[in-house]
Design a protein that fits this description.
Elements: H1 2-14, H2 17-41, E1 57-58, E2 63-66, H3 68-81, E3 85-88, H4 90-111, H5 118-129, H6 136-145, H7 148-165, E4 167-168, H8 171-180, E5 188-193, E6 196-201, E7 206-207, H9 208-222, H10 227-240, E8 245-247, H11 249-261, E9 267-270, E10 275-277, H12 285-299, H13 303-328, H14 335-355, H15 375-385, H16 388-405, H17 410-426, H18 435-457, H19 465-491, H20 497-503, H21 509-517, H22 519-539, H23 543-552, H24 580-600, H25 605-613, H26 621-629
Parallel strand pairs: 3-5, 4-7
Antiparallel strand pairs: 1-10, 2-9, 3-8, 5-6
Helix pairs in contact: 2-13, 2-14, 3-11, 4-5, 4-7, 9-10, 13-16, 14-15, 15-16, 15-17, 15-19, 16-17, 17-18, 18-19, 21-22, 22-23, 23-25, 24-25, 24-26
């Protein structure tokens, strides 16, 4: 594990920061946009039938809900106004054609029978034509003046023509049929002729009276000079014609369905801010319909338009943070801190997504509230490991972002911002890990006061589960900070005051080893620590960093303690028996040995830098002078 951390630190300290800055910017932009879109696509309002609404819901936008009762009325109206279809009964025409054909066959048979006298033929004719009520003289005249074949063709042709137009008893029958189908009277009907459907006026439908008048006119025109033929043909049509229309239920039903399908759903407009359900109301069917309609219309917006909107919003937030950090605060982040800010942001956003309730009415789960989101964790972490000013600004931007996940609710954004600002301020001078508990207390108090004030302003009871959610947020921020802070400090090699305070512990393995193997160096380091702390105080530098750097700057002397004068109290000086070049090499090597020990024991890079630079590049005057005194070889 230690080798992995050393390898990670080495990579982070030597990686191309410019490449990583661009990559992290793009990755963060994509991540934030995706989370917003995922949260946007998730239904926010879900109610359980017959449950008690623990929180009122107001329409966040103007939207429409189906008005089923009005739609049903429109559908019934469409059914009543749909047309009735009538079809011709083909069997009637076939039957009538067969009767006519049979009669004329019999007439021709009698006419062609040479064995019959004229009187006998007349008797036979009357038997065949008895239905047509003709006198003997009329029959004889008919047979003598008109061809039977001509009469038969005239009857069949005109019978078919009339029957194919459709014949009814009278128009009152049509009205009765429309009434039976529970339709409103219309002037038009649908007439079905085989596969053809035609919309016609009721007045265009032939009644029996109309049909006979029509035939009388045709017969008169064609047989004007043959009265017996005219009477015979008119009697045939009076006898043979009968209604041949009936209601076509199948087509009528199809027409009705087509008209119903044209009826658009009646929409009821719900205005923005209008109450959908009030706190304490029992959830009814009408509430569920409105909530479902709201979810559908919110989720049904143009996806690309929504993605572009979220992307632009997040782009502005990231540009503001970058400008504030690099131009105003003049902070040039190393890769370690860039990864710290990015990953802690991702973690906070993911936790926010989990804590934002997907059910507006959720019984007994008080911590599932936006007030539970640990914005203070992000602010306190950045305040400790980066900068309090950066932490405050970043927490304000994060509050706006998380606020977008809650529908840009001012109440939530206000609590997020104040919690983040208080968290950043309360951790700006952390000297002990116990100070984190004090910071948690401050965040808790600020959350309670802010939430309580908002509820008072909104004329709501102060005591509610929302206060519990605010307390939960502070506790969660504290637990996350305590658990994750050491991981970031160790793996990303970020030196905080807490890390430095731990390194001032004289029981640290390196300091214990120094005290045992190089007691003079140990005392020297403690003394330098006191002096450097005083100097740092005078110039406004970090006194803690100065002291810790002094404690560890000479740890490289542990490997060869006897070669350094502070450890030679009762011992001879080994340099007296060494060449000045070798002595100088031994003295200088303690810097490299100190760097190696620092990395082995995972000291922060800032301390390793002090170890590496504490002698600068000055000449070792003592050994240089000795080298000059010695004769050249």
């Amino acid at each position: 594990m230690k080798k992995a951390i050393i390898g990670l630190r080495h990579y982070l300290n030597n990686a191309d920061t410019k490449y990583w800055k661009i990559s992290l910017f793009i990755i963060t932009l994509i991540f934030l946009t995706y989370i917003q879109y995922f949260n946007y696509r998730t239904p926010k309002y879900m109610l359980k039938l017959n449950s008690v609404a623990t929180k009122g819901i107001k329409a966040p936008i103007d939207f429409y809900v189906d008005d089923e009762s009005s739609t049903l009325l429109k559908i019934e109206e469409a059914k009543l106004n749909s047309l009735v279809a009538f079809r011709m009964i083909p069997e009637i025409l076939t039957q009538k054609e067969r009767i006519i054909s049979d009669d004329f066959i019999n007439l021709r048979r009698v006419s062609n029978d040479v064995d019959l006298e004229d009187g006998e033929k007349t008797v036979q004719y009357q038997k065949i034509l008895r239905s047509y009520r003709l006198t003997d003289s009329e029959v004889q005249e008919l047979m003598e003046t008109v061809s039977l074949k001509e009469l038969e063709q005239f009857v069949l042709i005109n019978l078919k023509r009339i029957m194919l137009e459709g014949v009814v008893e009278d128009r009152d029958w049509i009205l009765d049929q429309i009434k039976k189908q529970r339709k409103i009277f219309k002037k038009d009907i649908i007439l079905v002729r085989g596969a053809k459907e035609e919309k016609i006026s009721i007045n265009q439908v032939l009644t029996l009276e109309d049909a006979i008048e029509n035939m009388d006119f045709r017969i008169e025109n064609q047989y004007r000079d043959k009265p017996s033929a005219r009477k015979f043909l008119l009697r045939i049509f009076e006898y043979i014609l009968e209604p041949n229309l009936e209601v076509d239920l199948k087509v009528t039903s199809r027409i009705e369905d087509a008209e119903v399908s044209k009826v658009p759903p009646v929409k009821q407009l719900i205005r923005q801010g209008q109450n959908i359900i009030r706190d304490g109301d029992i959830v009814r069917e009408e509430h569920l319909k409105k909530i479902n309609a709201l979810n559908e219309q919110v989720l049904g917006r143009n996806k690309m338009q929504v993605v572009i909107g979220f992307t632009l919003f997040n782009l502005i937030l990231l540009i503001l943070f970058s400008y504030f950090s690099f131009k105003i605060e003049l902070i040039k982040f190393d890769l370690n801190r860039l990864i710290l800010i990015s990953t802690s942001l991702y973690l906070t956003v993911l936790i926010s997504l989990l804590l934002i309730p997907k059910e507006t009415v959720k019984e007994g789960v008080w911590f599932l509230s936006p007030y539970s989101i640990p914005i203070a964790f992000f602010a306190m972490l950045l305040s400790i490991l980066v900068s309090p000013k950066i932490a405050i600004f970043a927490s304000v931007l994060l509050s706006l972002y998380v606020g977008s996940l809650t529908g840009f609710s001012f109440n939530y954004i206000a609590v997020f911002m104040l919690s983040g600002i208080v968290g950043a301020f309360s951790t700006r001078n952390i000297r002990r890990r116990n100070d984190l508990a004090r910071a948690m207390l401050y965040v808790t108090i600020s959350a309670i006061i802010t939430i309580g004030a908002i509820r008072i302003i909104n004329n709501q009871p102060v005591y509610s589960s929302e206060l519990g959610a605010g307390i939960f947020s502070a506790i969660l921020s504290f637990l996350l900070l305590v658990g994750i802070l050491p991981i970031y400090e160790s793996s990303l090699d970020i030196c905080s005051d807490l890390t430095l305070l731990e390194l001032t512990d004289l029981s640290h393995p390196l300091l214990v080893e120094m005290a045992l193997k190089a007691p003079g160096t140990y005392q020297h380091s403690l003394t330098v620590g006191t002096l450097s702390e005083a100097g740092a105080t005078a110039i406004g530098a970090s006194t803690l960093l100065a002291r810790v750097g002094a404690y560890y700057h000479d740890i490289g002397k542990i490997n060869k303690p006897d070669y350094f004068v502070e450890n030679q109290k009762y011992k001879s000086n080994p340099h007296d028996k060494m060449s000045p070049f070798m002595s100088a090499k031994v003295i200088i090597s303690h810097v490299k040995d100190g760097v190696d020990l620092g990395r082995k024991y995972l000291l922060p890079q800032r301390i390793i830098d002090i170890i590496e630079q504490h002698h600068g590049d000055m000449t070792l005057t003592q050994f240089y002078s000795r080298a000059l005194e010695e004769p050249r070889k």
